[in-house]
Amino acid sequence: MNWNNAIKDYHSFLKIERGLSTNTINSYTNDLEKLVKFLLENEITVSPIAIDEYSIQQFIYDAAKKINPRSQARLISGLKSFFDYLVFEDYRKTNPTDLIEAPKIGRKLPDTLSEEEIDALIAAIDLSHPQGERNRTILETMYSCGLRVSEVITLKISDLFFDEGFIRVLGKGNKERFVPIHSQAQKFIKSYINEIRIHEISQKNHEDTLFLNRRGKGLTRQLIFMMINDTATKINLKKKISPHTFRHSFATHLLKYGADLRAIQQMLGHESITTTEIYVHLDTSYLRDVVETYHPRRQKKSY
Fold first, then answer.
1. Residue 296: inside a domain
2. pLDDT band at 225 (very low <50, low <70, confident <90, very high)
3. Which one, 102, 198, 237, 278, has least CB within 10 Å?
4. Residue 14 has what DSSP assignment?
5. CA dist., res. 183 & res. 250, Å (int)
6. Catalytic residue annotation
7. What's the whole-number average pLDDT of the chain?
8. Residue 151 belongs to what domain range?
9. Claim to verify: residue 245 and residue 129 sit in the same structural domain
10. pLDDT digits (tens, 9 = 90+) for 91-142
11. Given phi > 0 = left and psi -120 to 50 = alpha, else beta, which region is 146?
12. Which range (57-61, 184-188, 272-276) has the least confidence?
């Protein structure tokens, strides 16, 4: 991954996933372009995946000569956000700005949806709409399998192994994994294929693509994002959600009902268990129940 591609992907993430304003996005990307310019001027050849804390500190020290402390803090916060994004998307294992002294902004994660909210969103899909069945199937598949939006829009019919109860997913870095798929999602996908997809004319190179748009081509991330937010507005859901919210909810709900963290790691396709832990937002009541259920002193009487 080079800097141009990384900044372009990050720009899309800020716009589509986080819904930030144009001015805010430009501010974030301008800081990154300044970093790239600094690296070029100082003949430092390093990718966004390989850059280390020392190089970033050099850049910040150089920038500090020209800007006030408040601007420095904003600059560091912007860099932290960018490298948080790279970690969040599995491009990096660590954030090189973590040890740089600055106000911590934390990692921005989407809200977790409750089971009732998931059901309400899926039930709110207008099945009378020409793309209703497709949209309902997409939401069910994302929640059932914990897929990234990029994974669901590239899913192929030949990736479905329903007899075995799995789907094949091509994840980050073209890494292939097999993910279990629930019978409910299988039912929706079969219905979509047999009743809707079979009547659609696919364009060249999209004959095997599972989810098609009205022109017979694959879907875009933007379309999925808009569909989810339109549905959330329809049911008056106050949370700010994105396609990734379904993946986050998938992991959280599995853990809540006793799934092993390592198993969730495999299903999400994470190299590091640390990345999986980022997705897991547990409320304190669940943690209390875990202690009361599994701690060896749970049945001992106090004296």
1. no
2. very high
3. 198
4. I
5. 15
6. 148, 172, 244, 247, 270, 279
7. 85
8. 115-285
9. yes
10. 888 888 887 775 444 455 557 899 999 999 999 999 998 899 999 999 999 9
11. left
12. 272-276
Q: Give the CATH number of the domain where residue 130 resides.
A: 1.10.443.10
Write out pLDDT tens, residues 205-220: 999 999 999 999 999 9
Structure tokens at 103: 């106000």
Query: Is 81 a residue whose pLDDT tops 60?
Result: yes
Using one digit for the tens of pLDDT, what is the confidence trace for 5-52? 999 999 988 888 777 778 788 888 998 999 999 999 988 889 989 998
How many angstroms separate the CA atoms of 250 and 142, rounded? 8
| Residue 110 to residue 117: CA distance in whole angstroms | 14
DSSP structure class, residue 17: I
In this structure, the answer to whether residues 65 and 198 fall within a common structural domain is no
Buried b / exposed e over 122-160, threshold 16 CB at 10 Å, is bebbeeeeebebbbbbbbbbbbbbbbbbebbbbbbeebb
Reduced 3-state DSSP string for 143-191? HHHCCCHHHHHCCEHHHEECCCCEEEEECHHHCEEEEECCHHHHHHHHH
Whether residues 24 and 125 fall in one domain? no
User: What are the backbone dihedrals phi and psi of residue 298, each rounded to the nearest 5 degrees, phi first?
Assistant: -60, -30
Q: Which residue type, as a one-letter code, is found at position 281?
A: H
> CA–CA separation, 131 vs 224, rounded Å?
12
39 within 8 A of 64, measured Cβ to Cβ: no
Under 8 Å between Cβ of 205 and 213:
no
CA distance 267 to 179: 6
Q: Note whether 131 and 48 are same-domain residues.
A: no
Based on the domain organization, do 60 and 126 belong to the same domain?
Answer: no
